Amino acid sequence: MAIKDAHNGQSWYQWEPELAWRNPAAIALQREKLADTIFFHKYIQSEFFRQWSSLKAYANEKGIQIFGDLPIYVAHDSADVWGHPKIFRLDYKTGAAKWMAGVPPDYFSETGQLWGNPVYNWRNLARTKYAWWIERVKTMLAFVDIVRVDHFRGFEGFWAVAQGETTAMNGRWVGAGGDKFFQLLKDTLGDLPIVAEDLGVITPEVEALRDKYGLPGMKILHFAFDSDRGNPFLPFNYTNRNCIVYSGTHDNDTTVGWFEKRSEEDKAKVTDYLGCLCDEGIHWGLIRLAMGSVANLAVFPLQDFLGLGTEAKMNTPGVAAGNWEWRYHPDMLSDDLANKTRYLTYLYGREPEYRGE
Fold it and tell me: Residue 244 — φ and ψ, nearest 5°?
């Protein structure tokens, strides 16, 4: 960060070659030259980690676990790629991503999603016994209690798009080294408090990798009503309790917004399954449906507890700007909402005792 500041925010691969590729003498010179700026960044990081660790300790004392999120990929312009270029598929002349990460066309985008992150060089990772990945997971678990690994299917096989492409349509599937990695991770850490984000193009091989290490997958109710009764997201099709059911995720609309955008015919598919559209609203209908399922955990966006519409949507995949701007304010939360949530948690067997007010 200190070198980046000195280069007016330029990405590391735009620096002089001796800095971009970490020539020891050039780095030593910068370390001396930029000592004050380096100290500033160290201080800011240490303060964040101190405050976060205090927050986590407080939550844990109250019996609350923190559920974190770990993207499978890291940013191209990051300390990780700059510091460990050999474990990424880079153009080693320019520093550009030789192969970029993304997903093929799917529910969210007709042209797929081109993320732009460099994909991993799994062969080189294996040569290091996955040291960078293991350290990354260990560090994450120092700050959260459970971690959801985003794009889990990328550990079995990933979509790689060649440098120069502007969409993810012209990519190809490439095998990864996930099985050997997770075995070594389990040998190192023991039980893995990891959740697999297993949405999208999921193959039997991806499911086998998930199940081999006992990782819970995800069930999204917003995806449950647009095919036939064999839809795997319908609760009566959950054949494994080791999963987490969500009304929707950060990539979905809120439940109210999702339902309002459906045609009358598609709304009927939902209300027929629920039995009715209760006076509480569709958001409470899906909350009740999820809580009443056999899934070990049920997770809901706060927007759904509050019954908010599309104006409170968190994120639109494939859109670079305008996301992650919604915030809640303390006056949105109330004792009535807390008591109702507590009662439903008890009613559906997810809390051993009801301590009503």
Answer: -120, 125
Buried b (16+ CB within 10 A) or exposed e, 80-103: ebbebbebbbbeeeebebbbbbbb
- What angle, rounded to 10 degrees, do the helices at 282-291 and 264-274 form? 40
User: Is position 355 within any domain?
Assistant: no
Residue 352 domain-assigned?
A: no
Checking if the pLDDT of 148 tops 90, the result is yes
Strand pairing class (171-175; 157-162): antiparallel
Count of domains for the chain: 2
Chain-centre distance for alpha carbon 37: 32
- Asked if residue 260 lies in contact with residue 239, where contact means CB atoms within 8 angstroms, the answer is no
Residue 40, domain extent: 1-64
pLDDT single digits (tens) 263-283: 999 999 999 999 988 889 999
Residues listed for the chain: 357
Residues classed as catalytic: 150, 197, 251
Residues 24, 73, single domain; the answer is no
In tens, the pLDDT along 199-246 reads 987 899 999 999 999 999 999 999 999 999 999 999 999 998 999 999
Query: What DSSP element (H or E) covers 194?
Result: strand 194-196
Same domain (yes/no): 166, 308: yes
Q: Which of 64, 84, 111 is the last residue of a domain?
A: 64
Shared domain for 142 and 59, answered yes or no, is no
On average, the pLDDT of the chain sits at 95
Residues 259 and 113 in one domain: yes
Q: How confident is the model at residue 354 (pLDDT cuts 50, 70, 90)?
A: low
Please state, in angstroms and rounded to a whole number, the distance separating the CA atoms of residues 118 and 123: 15
Copy the structure tokens of residue 224.
């449950």
For the segment 149-183, what is each residue's pLDDT rounded down to a tens digit?
999 999 999 999 999 999 999 999 999 999 999 99
List Cβ neighbours of 114 (8 Å cut-off, separation of 6 or more). 100, 102, 161, 165, 166, 167, 168
Strands 217-220 and 194-196: unpaired
Domain-embedded: residue 353? no
What is the structure's pLDDT at 276?
85
Whether pLDDT at 73 is above 60: yes
One-letter amino acid of 123: R
Q: Residue 232 corresponds to which tokens in the numbers above? A: 């795997």
